Amino acid sequence: PCVVSQWSAWSGCAEPCKAAARFRRREIIQEPRNGGEACPALEERAGCMEYWTGQGTECKQSLIPALITTGGFGKARKKRAAADGKERAGYCVEFQLLTITPGCQHSPHSYTRWMWYLREGHTVCVECQHPALDPRSQHCSGDGTGSNKKQLLHWRAVGNPRCQGTWRRTRQLDTCSCPSVHSFLFI
């Protein structure tokens, strides 16, 4: 039968700051002879995302997955965060949910039950407020700033690593009036 080497280490991402591919290879040590078993695949590819350029600078905001939690956390956050009035008040971004992993529906803890209400196709409203609002950029990580309307963006739910998905940014609102059921916060 064919004999192959061990897999090489995974390559780096083909392109920084883009959804790209990485690969690994193995070599043929012995070709099959006399009707022996054929060689298996010699290359594997996998998706990857590199968040730093080759020069060591962070990629554009629109490529960073958004970390979200329930909007109900906002009232408690505002009480704890002693904003001194110099920070921007915050803003909201509306997204259309495109994909949701099944892990969102299987959150056993009471603090993750908000994930049960996530549904593909729904529009959700995510608030960016202090302290998640970066004082330098005046944005929250993963808010999709700089993305185009067709670009798929990624999000992850805080408290359940199996709950994540994609969404598309529809618009930014400078004053927030998010509905309570589909209201979330950037972390």
TrEMBL record:
Domain Spondin-like TSP1: 2-50
Database matches in Pfam families: SBSPON_C (PF25031), TSP1_spondin (PF19028)
InterPro entries xref list: SBSPO, SBSPON_C, TSP1_rpt, TSP1_rpt_sf, TSP1_spondin_dom
Stored PROSITE patterns: TSP1
UniProtKB keywords: Disulfide bond, Glycoprotein, Signal
Source organism superkingdom: Eukaryota
Signal sequence annotation: none
Domain SBSPON-like C-terminal stretches: 86-180
Family matches, as PANTHER family: RPE-SPONDIN, SMB DOMAIN-CONTAINING PROTEIN
This protein's name: SBSPO protein
Species of the source: Calyptomena viridis
